[in-house]
Amino acid sequence: QVQLQQWGAGLLKPSETLSLTCAVYGGSFSGFYWTWIRQPPGKGLEWVGEVNPGGSTNYNPSLKSRVTVSVDTSKNQFSLRLTSVTAADTAVYYCARARMGGYDYGSLDVWGQGTAVTVSS
Amino acid sequence: SSELTQDPAVSVALGQTVRIKCQGDSLRSYYASWIQEKPGQAPVCVFYGKNNRPSGIPVRFSGSSSGNTASLTITGAQAEDEADYYCSSRDSSGTLVVFGGGTRLTVL
To answer: Alpha-carbon distance B70 to B23, whole Å?
Structure first.
C-alpha cells in the first residue's frame, strides 16, 4: 500500500520561502506524476504543480512565477518551493500521486496527510 | 474559478442512492477522479478513471461518465459518507489539473 508522508515548516513570515517535502513509501516511484495541492481555509482544492521522475514539471499558471516542484529519485521524494509568500498562501498543502497513462490519466489516487502552512507577520 | 462545475450541496436519506455530478469540457477527453474530504482529515480518493475504486473504498461508491459530465454514485448512503466531494481531471490541454468547487453531501 503506497503511503505519502510530508513535512515542512508550518509558520512563515511574508516574503519568506515555503518549503515542503513528500516521501513515497511502499510503491513504485516511476510512472506517476507527483503533485502538490493546497486548500486555503474554508475554500476548495487548488492544484499547485507536479513533477514526474524525469524531472518534467507542470505548474498552475497563477503560481508559475513563484513555484518549483523538484524530485529526488534516489530517495523517492519530491519537494515544493514557493517563494515570496503572502497571507494568501496560507493553506493546508497536500502531496498526492497522479496516474500517468491511459484512462486513469491525471487521477489523484493517493494523498498525503497534509501540512498546515500559515503566513503571518 | 473552477473549470469543473459541481452543485454546492446535495442531501440524501440514509440508505438511499445519491448521484453527485461534475460538468466541464475537459471531461469529454479525460476521466474524473473523486475526492472525499471530511473535517480534519486528509482527502481520500473514492473513485477514479474509467472504473477504479481504490483499495479499502466500499463498493457502494461508483463512477460514470457521459459527454461533459462525470458522476459519483453512492448506492445506499451511510452516515459516514457525509463529507465534501471534489471532482478533478486534467484540463482540456492535458497539461494542468482542475478541480470542481466541491459538493457538500448531507446524509439525513
So the answer is: 6
Q: CB B101 to CB A105 under 8 A?
A: no
User: Cell numbers of A90, please?
Assistant: 496560507
- Which burial class, exposed, middle or buried, applies to A19 when counting CB atoms under 10 A from its CB (0-12, 13-18, 19+)? middle
pLDDT digits (tens, 9 = 90+) for A47-92: 999 999 999 999 999 999 999 999 999 999 999 999 999 999 999 9
Chain B residues lying within 8 Å of A94, measured CB to CB = 42-43
Burial class (CB in 10 A: 0-12, 13-18, 19+), A80: buried
Dist CA A52 CA A81 (whole Å): 16
Are B45 and A110 a contacting pair at CB < 8 A? yes
